[in-house]
Design a protein that fits this description.
Layout: E1 12-18, E2 27-33, H1 51-64, E3 67-73, H2 75-81, H3 83-97, E4 104-108, E5 120-123, H4 131-154, H5 160-163, H6 169-178
Parallel strand pairs: 1-4, 4-5
Antiparallel strand pairs: 1-2, 2-3
Helix pairs in contact: 1-4, 2-3
């Protein structure tokens, strides 16, 4: 059972990211402020839900949230500042876009770079513990999936429609065969050592 809030007295924004471990594409993050009395029977960590359930929940979250936003950081930015800092930056951008300034941030994970003067709590596996983080995980995941589906139309060889740019065997085989795109993260190990690309 997901908790409705960390502190009942504060305006809390749950924050989560999607696409951190992918070999290509932007990393996305979402920030969501839910009403304290929000209820939904199927809301959970996005990884525990089916694609159909996530798509069903997205408009429910958007319509019922007090405020929500989604932001992204490009593959080029990821290569410049590394994926950890890019994940923090994506969350910062999402928080910045909220039309209400939260009094507290609930961050999925064990690390975060402080955003302005807003206090935060890092919660390991928070997307399976708090409703606002779970909601953020669903928005980040669905918006990133939509983005990868569009990129797939331009680069069908990599099967991003199915693998969403994670390092599957088919994705790595396509990199070996067709090379990289402008969307690949060059700071990542795109292939195992025995299949290294020659640049």
């Amino acid at each position: 059972m997901l908790k409705k809030y960390f502190d009942k007295k504060l305006i809390e924004a749950g924050c989560d990211e999607a696409g951190r471990g992918c070999l290509a594409g932007d990393v996305f993050a979402a920030a969501v402020i839910l009403p304290k009395n929000f209820k939904n029977k199927i809301l959970d960590d996005s990884k525990k839900l089916t694609d159909k359930q996530r798509k069903l929940l997205r408009p429910i979250i958007e319509e019922n949230a007090i405020a929500w936003s989604v932001a992204q950081v490009t593959a080029q930015e990821i290569d410049e500042i590394n994926i950890l800092n890019a994940s923090f930056l994506a969350m910062h951008r999402a928080i910045e876009k909220l039309n209400i300034v939260p009094e507290s941030l609930l961050i999925d994970g064990n690390r975060f770079k402080k955003y302005k003067n807003i206090p935060h709590n890092c919660i390991i596996q928070g997307d399976g513990k708090y409703m606002s983080i779970a909601a953020a995980s669903i928005l980040a995941k669905t918006y990133r999936d939509d983005y990868m589906d569009k990129l797939h139309e331009e680069f069908p060889h990599y099967n991003w429609l199915k693998n969403k740019a994670y390092g599957t065997i088919k994705h790595r085989e396509a990199i070996k065969k067709y090379g990289v795109t402008v969307h690949h993260r060059m700071s990542f190990r795109l292939l195992p050592e025995q299949l290294e690309l020659e640049f």
